[in-house]
Amino acid sequence: MNKATRKTVIAGNWKMNKTPSEAKALITEMKPLVADADCDVVLCVPFIDIAAAIEAAEGSNIKIGAENVHFKASGAYTGEISADMLKEAGVEYVVIGHSERRQYFGETDQTVNLRTLAALNAGLKAIVCVGETLEQRELGYTETLLKYQTKMALTNVTKEQLANVIIAYEPVWAIGTGVTATDDQADEGNGYVRAAVAEAYGADVAETVTVQYGGSMNAKNAEGLLSKVNVDGGLIGGASLKAEDFSIIVKAASK
Ligand code: 13P
């Protein structure tokens, strides 16, 4: 295992929070706090905030991402946003397959795969989310499920395209609950994801893939989680809405 072979990426996922003016204010506050980061810093924001966020982040090390993308290039899909639209708007990253999308909006492993391919083909970087529910964990399915979700999401993704894929292990029971996975649980889950990538693409390739942990990561627990060999960063919900807390996590990842 060698953490040095891959990028550390701290990404915020704002979910359905912040209006455009609030987005601008938060990014303006964050910019100086994360300016000397020794990791990649990304904020994934609601579609409506993208223009304001890109303007506010200009000249800084903060990259802007979206929270979803449709898999079709264009057409009669009311309310959806295509990968080309995001690309032209200046978006660099997109979250795909978040458990909230799977849970509330009928996202399946197949649509996660299609969205991933659409994002990669448009030149976006995909942050693909996987994770087990508490029930699945208690039944002993965590490893099987994480490997299945990972392989399904990456179906037909080439080895070259994998360089633009980040996988986020987000145990559903840890999201927004204040219950964080222990450092070892996070490391283990991320390890299953990496093992799935190794089974599909080879161990050498798997060593290069950034695997984030997400689920109640905050200013207090980030350092421990990020110290683990398989944890190459974080996907941060609640704590990414507070400039100071987010910057502390970025600092923990920069050590
Ligand atoms: P919280 O950090 O609020 O638990 O959310 C995690 C998450 O879902 C990030 O995508």
Note down, in words, how this protein is organized.
- The mean pLDDT is 97.
- The chain is built from 11 helices and 8 strands.
- Helix 1 runs parallel beside helix 2, helix 1 packs across helix 11 and helix 7 crosses helix 8.
- The chain starts with 8 loop residues before the first strand and ends with a helix.
- Helix 3 links the parallel strand 3 and strand 4.
- The protein has an 8-stranded parallel barrel with strand order 1-2-3-4-5-6-7-8, surrounded by 5 helices.
- With 255 residues, it is α/β, with parallel strands linked by helices.
- It binds 1,3-dihydroxyacetonephosphate.
- The site of 1,3-dihydroxyacetonephosphate has 14 residues, from strand 8.
What's a concise summary of this model?
The chain has 255 residues and is of the alpha/beta class. It has helices at 20-33, 50-57, 83-89, 99-104, 109-121, 134-138, 142-153, 183-201, 203-206, 222-226, 243-253; strands at residues 9-13, 40-44, 62-66, 93-96, 125-130, 165-169, 211-214, 233-236. β7, α10 (222-226) and β8 (233-236) form a beta-alpha-beta unit.
- Helix/strand order: EHEHEHEHHEHHEHHEHEH
Beginning-to-end CA distance, first to last residue: 18 Å
Q: How does the overall form come out from the CA principal axes?
A: globular
* Count of runs of 4 or more consecutive helical residues: 11
Low-confidence stretches: none
Which structural class best describes the helix and strand composition? alpha/beta
- Share of helical residues: 40-55%
User: Approximately what portion of the residues adopt beta-strand conformation?
Assistant: 5-15%
Q: Largest beta sheet: what is the strand line-up? A: 1-2-3-4-5-6-7-8
Distinct small-molecule ligands in the complex: 1,3-dihydroxyacetonephosphate
Largest sheet: 8 strands, parallel, barrel
Number of strands: 8
pLDDT averaged residue by residue: 97
Radius of gyration: 17 Å
